[in-house]
Design a protein that fits this description.
Helix content of chain B: 25-40%
Strand order of the largest sheet of chain A: 3-5-1-12-9-10-11
Strand content of chain A: 15-25%
CATH superfamily of the largest domain in chain B: Beta-grasp domain
CATH architecture of the largest domain in chain B: Roll
Number of strands of chain A: 30
Distance between the termini of chain A: 72 Å
Structural class of chain B: alpha+beta
Order of helices and strands of chain B: EEHEEEHHHH
Number of helices of chain A: 19
Radius of gyration of chain A: 28 Å
CATH class of the largest domain in chain B: Alpha Beta
Oligomer: heterodimer
Mean pLDDT of chain A: 97
């Protein structure tokens, strides 16, 4: 049987999604359904003086109105910060309470105050208008860089500072800087983004009073995590009485990793009113209440020798956490950011200092790349600036500082197991016709356009993550993954995984892996995920971990199946177990033609005895059945890397920037399904280019979200892009048997600096993201003025 | 707050439908809530995302912008109506072949919109496809394979 790993297999999940037969949370409606509508704070910061719902409760169709007082009375726990970060002085991070419904203060526009539950959505929405909340409005803290100097939001959190974290050695960095020929400095804003999965968040909780069980359907990347948080921390129901199902999920990009207030409230409310409670966000609610991404203000410095050798790196960043510390909110700007901030380079000394601040804005958490895009943007724009100031070609300065030996002990944390950065960049230079740029630039100039080229080389720490390591760094959970491989008696297979597909195509790639391992045709393998009652506990999908961690768990479970199969086959074939070999789905006795297929062995495992024609007694002491579980905890992160080169054309008269050429050469280790991997890269690139040119989440000074709809927040659209040119290099990961590294986040990590370097190359001025037409036009005007003065 | 009910009569995927619904019922709500045709998705509140695109009398429209009652007598086709004798429409086949979808949420609207394009421009250029699909937002695919799928479908339709 030809290997399926590496083949462009069409996706198994597509037919249902293409024919309208997918089932998303909003598509689920129970008998006796009720509908929830949340009363949200219209103010960024206020005290709640009084909530009066006397009119709302009498409105037509209203079943119940619940407020923060009910949360307190029922002792429902708050939402949690999942990662404990310590400050440089050793003190613990400071975390404010985050009740699912507020009773004392509201801290961002969209914060949850009450929920109205009614027979129909219209009735719930109409009645919500009748809930009168008496607020004492307070001055909001909005700006990231001013947060520490602004009014104190929480009484126990001075300077609005959650932590002041350091990674690296300041003294060593000082030494390095003292030796430098030149110090390159840069000030950057990593613009705040809204993840914007196309499926708005939703929850539908059903409660059975007889069994006391809650079934929660939710838009989650991680139903097991939702279950344990809603059970153990919010205290809504014991874990064994809470089933969480994430059916088809319409994208997540990090924003659906953890449960939000709405899932907690719907589950708790369903139990209280003994009826199912459904909530579906509208898009503006999503903008207001989904966790946002990025939002850093950074000052970074690079110490260099005149020949371009890097000596040291400093990174001083203020990271906006929003109003509350979300589940991965504190790790995103620290351990996911700091270690990657020195980029792919040999950097003798480095530190990253992050001050994480609270503001009266929506919580900020992981968004595609989470910390690594911010790190890559910092180092890669800084390296380009160094190249400009030293008069060295951007490719050459990078080549000069690449490590050549692997494993490579990266400056701050990671031991990078494999890579070949030189080969990647060389390939990108060729594929993009880097050398032909000047000619293309002249052609653009003849049309009145400015053309720029930008380079970026990146690495990222993925395959999240080795549990002992992350727990030592403050993670409140393990990050291993589970798989259960279950042969059915008739020889077909169901594979349960603790990871969760919300667009990544696990039904296909995981089936390719299992098919290769077991020698069973792919169409006889089903992948099951997203239901806590079906498969074993797992940690879901994010951090480019599903294949590398979850896929490996599948391999390990298959290995156990084959080991048992060998023992059973040996008995069936009256041979010694040592003589039985397994390949292509058959157990064969060496140097003979005696064999049994894995299907026959599975059948025997379920019919362990003699019955008519069936003669399959199991070896002594062997249990019947054929089902194995594996929990895989990786020994290391995985380290995808790559080189991207972009060309833009800028119209100086309008400021409009067009990406005209984009080449991405990535090393994801082994590729299971190129079709799927290319799709992941395309999607990541568009999100990354979106950050660079279009997207910006903007709050005004009072904390009102100005960009709360698709009329105001610029989403990347089909006509914004050229056809991307993709290529791959491959150095297999050594930390997992598949050799995979992960591919989901690469595009979003590499594209922002690649594009911005190209824009800055075109216009000759530093400019912040997003490089909108207005900003670019102003920069071009300014340049014209300066140039004419100089002349 | 009583609500006014209104009769809606439509032909949906070849089947005649008569329902009495609140007068402000949008076509998207009518399809999803009243006919359980949940293949049509709603991804925004401002007619920007295009996840809800269906065909009304052969033309693609955003079903979240139309009142069901306004369309009395019209023929509506949704994503569920494309499969014929168990066979997917060439556009659906092309999306599958070329990985034109990931999470699948925007897909029904994208497919319905793309079919309308090919029905009046049988051989569109990349630029024409990208311009036409400007009203359909996809957050997963980066659009490249969608464009490829539409071109592929153009050779089969």
């Amino acid at each position: 049987m030809a290997s399926l790993v590496g083949s462009r297999v069409e996706r198994k999940e597509d037919k249902k999604l293409l024919t309208g037969r997918g089932k998303y949370t909003a598509d689920v409606t129970f008998a006796h359904q009720t509908y929830a509508y949340f009363v949200r704070s219209p103010h960024a910061r206020a005290e709640i003086k009084k909530v009066d719902f006397s009119k709302a409760i009498k409105a037509p169709g209203v079943v119940s109105v619940l407020t923060g007082k009910d949360i307190v009375d029922d002792k429902i726990g708050g939402l949690i910060a999942g990662w404990r970060i310590k400050s440089e002085d050793g003190s613990d991070m400071k975390v404010p309470p985050h009740p699912p419904l507020a009773s004392e203060t509201v801290n961002y526009v969209g914060d949850h105050v009450a929920v109205v539950i009614a027979e129909s959505l219209d009735e719930a929405r109409n009645a919500a208008d009748l809930v009168k909340v008496d607020y004492k409005v307070l001055k909001a803290v909005v700006d990231t860089s001013d947060a520490m100097k602004s009014d104190q939001i929480y009484k126990d959190i001075p300077k609005n500072l959650c932590f002041d974290w350091l990674l690296g050695d300041r003294a060593k960095v000082k030494e390095a800087f003292d030796k430098a020929d030149k110090v390159i400095k840069i000030d950057l804003i990593n613009n705040r983004l809204v993840p914007n999965a196309m499926e708005p968040r939703a929850a539908n909780a059903d409660y059975n009073p007889s069994t006391e069980e809650i079934t929660l359907y939710t838009t989650s990347q991680n139903p097991h995590l939702a279950r344990i948080i809603i059970s153990a921390f919010n205290g809504v129901a014991p874990e064994n009485k809470l089933r969480v199902i994430a059916p088809d999920v319409g994208g997540g990009f990090g924003s659906k990793i953890y449960p939000y207030a709405e899932e907690v409230v719907c589950s708790w409310a369903a139990k209280k009113i003994e009826r199912p409670v459904k909530w579906v966000a509208d898009r503006t609610e999503s903008f207001l209440s989904d966790c946002h991404g990025r939002d850093h203000v950074t000052h970074a410095e690079l110490a260099v020798k005149n020949d371009g050798t890097f000596l040291g790196f400093k990174n001083e960043t203020v990271a906006n956490l929003g109003a509350y510390a979300s589940v991965f909110g504190t790790v995103t700007p620290t351990y996911l950011f700091g270690p990657c901030a020195t980029g792919v380079y040999k950097m003798p000394a480095a530190y990253t200092n992050v001050k994480a601040v609270y503001t009266n804005t929506a919580p900020v958490d992981a968004y595609r790349g989470a910390g690594r895009p911010e790190a890559t943007y910092t180092i890669e724009t800084l390296v380009d600036k160094a190249a400009r100031e030293l008069g060295i070609d951007p490719v050459e300065i990078r080549m000069k500082n690449f490590p050549t030996q692997f494993p490579f002990q990266q400056t701050l944390v990671h031991s990078v197991d494999s890579g070949d950065y030189i080969a990647g960049l060389k390939k990108a230079v060729e594929a993009s016709d880097y050398k032909g740029f000047e000619k293309r630039k002249r052609e653009s100039e003849s049309k009145g356009k400015l053309r720029g080229i930008g380079v970026c080389t990146y690495f990222e720490a993925c395959g999240i993550a080795p549990s002992p390591v992350v727990m030592m760094l403050g993670c409140g959970i393990g990050l291993w993954e589970s798989a259960e491989v279950r042969f059915n008696p008739t020889g077909n297979v169901t594979v349960f995984t603790g990871s969760h597909s919300h667009g990544q195509g696990h039904d296909t790639t995981f089936a390719q892996i299992a098919a290769d391992q077991l020698g069973v045709p792919m169409e006889n393998i089903e992948i099951s995920h997203g239901d806590t009652d079906k498969g074993p506990f797992g940690y879901g999908t994010y951090g480019s971990r599903s294949l590398t961690v979850g896929g490996t768990a599948i391999v390990k479970a298959c290995e156990k199946i084959i080991a048992k199969g060998k023992r059973v086959a040996a008995k069936m074939l009256e041979a010694s177990e040592d003589d039985v070999e397994f390949s292509n789905g058959e157990f064969v006795v060496a140097k003979s033609n005696k064999k049994k297929t894995i299907g026959e062995v599975a059948f025997a495992c379920y019919l362990p005895g003699t019955y008519g024609e069936v003669k399959s007694p199991l070896p002594e002491g062997e249990e019947p059945g054929l089902k194995e579980t594996s929990f895989f905890d990786p020994a290391n992160f995985s380290f995808p890397a790559g080189s991207h080169i972009c060309e833009v054309e800028v119209d100086p008269e309008t400021g409009e920037t067009e990406v005209v050429k984009y080449t991405a050469i990535d090393d994801f280790g082994t590729i299971i399904n190129p079709l799927v991997v290319e799709g992941q890269v395309h999607g990541g690139l568009v999100q990354g280019i979106g950050q660079a040119l279009y997207e910006n989440c903007h709050y005004d000074k009072s904390g009102q979200l100005v960009t709360a709809s698709y009329m105001d927040y610029t989403m990347p659209r089909a006509d914004n892009f050229p056809e991307f040119n993709l290529g791959f290099t491959c150095t297999p990961a050594t930390s997992n048997p598949l050799g995979t590294k992960g591919c989901g986040e690469a595009g979003a990590i590499a594209a922002p600096p690649t594009v911005m370097n190209a824009v800055m190359n075109a216009i000759g001025t530093e400019i912040s993201m997003p490089a909108t037409a207005e900003k670019v036009w102003k920069a071009c005007k300014e340049n014209k003025k300066t140039n004419s003065k100089a002349a | 707050m009583g609500q006014f009910m209104i009769k809606v009569g439509l032909e949906v995927n070849g089947k005649k439908i008569q329902k009495e619904v609140p007068e402000h019922t949008l076509l998207s709500t009518f399809l999803r809530e009243h006919l359980n045709l949940t293949g049509t998705h709603v991804g925004c509140d401002t007619s920007q995302c295009g996840a809800c695109v269906v065909h009304v009398d052969g033309k693609s429209i955003k079903s979240c912008t139309a009142l069901a009652a306004d369309l009395n007598g019209s023929k509506v086709k949704t994503i569920e109506g494309l499969v014929k004798n168990g066979k997917m429409h060439p556009m659906q086949e092309a999306f599958k072949k070329l990985h034109g979808l990931q999470c699948g949420f925007c897909t029904p609207g994208m497919v319905m919109s793309a079919i309308d394009l090919l029905e009046h421009n049988s051989n569109p250029s990349d630029k024409e496809i990208r311009d036409w699909l400007e009203g359909n937002i996809c957050r997963c695919t980066g659009y490249q394979n969608i464009v490829a799928a539409v071109k592929e479908a153009a050779t089969k339709m």
